[in-house]
Amino acid sequence: MEALGSLIAKAVQRRFIRGFKIEGRGEIENQVSHLLFVDDTLLFCEDDEEQLNFWKYIIMCFELVSGLKINVQKSEVIPVVGTMDVNRATSLFGCKVGKLPTSYLGLPFGAPNKHCGVWDSIKERFKRKLAVWKKHCLSKGGRLVLLKSTISNLPIYFMSLFVILRKVRIRLERIQRDFLWGDLGDKSKIHLVKWSNVCKAKNFGGLGIRRLYSLNQALLGKCLWRFFVERESLWRKIICESSGRWRGLDY
């Protein structure tokens, strides 16, 4: 991946290819041509035939040097607003056409983060887990262990980046309450203790289940801390340049 990144950087330096520019209130413009994470790769390109050909040359060179080959069955060309001819790119790279919003590294890509549909995958994971557990006879202690070790951890990845919507939070907490008290849909059970008391720490008389709102605030607080610590990270530079509010601040 370092070799591929070097090939792309050299092509960008000589202006053979261009990604997209992060333009904001600042004087410096950040240009993003690619993003690499293990074997997941995003390549950005303008709607230009010459640039598409250079991207093809880079990929061919990388395949010859490394012996690795791109899996076109799992790859997509995703057009954005203003793209004229998608078929030209698909015929060149031999992959299918995708569309926004999509998913990248398990997170919604190109979807509004304040839309409830972003959290649909988390709700489905909750339902799949419960569908398996409903087949077994579990005691309250067993349900509590599964709730604290598995169910309450499912939305952590999303909540570390997005503010959980109130409607979504209420729905997910209702699922947890019903599972804890054995209300599995076909029969209702009485909830013996108020949910806010259940979520208290054990030394305060609760069961130590984490509240989603507090957990979300803590995770976002960590992200804010990283913003001021990881000063050379790409994501921080993009936020600074696109908003223009944090430039020149020293913390």
Describe the structure.
- This protein has 10 helices and 8 strands.
- The model has no long low-confidence stretch (mean pLDDT 82).
- It is elongated and about 70 Å long.
- The protein has helices spanning 2-13, 49-66, 86-93, 120-133, 140-149, 156-159, 166-180, 195-198, 212-229, 234-243, and strands spanning 20-22, 30-32, 34-37, 40-43, 76-77, 96-97, 102-104, 107-109.
- It folds into 2 domains: 2-99, no CATH class; 116-219, no CATH class.
- By secondary structure, it is mainly alpha-helical.
- The protein has a two-stranded antiparallel ribbon with strand order 1-2. The chain has a two-stranded antiparallel sheet with strand order 3-4.
- Helix 1 packs antiparallel against helix 2 (49-66) and helix 2 runs parallel beside helix 3.
